[in-house]
Amino acid sequence: MLSIKIMIMKKIFAEALGTFALVFVVMTAVGSGSAITPWLAGLTLGLFVYFVGHISGTHINPAVTIGAWSIGKIHMIDAIQYIVAQIIGALVAMVLVGGIMPGAIVGMIGDITVNNASVLIFIAEALGMFFFAFGIASVVYGKTPTNFSGLVIGLSLTLGIFVAAAMGSLGALNPAVALGLGSFNIAYIIGPIIGSVLGMQAYRALMTK
Question: Which domain, by its residues, includes 71?
Answer without folding.
Answer: 2-207
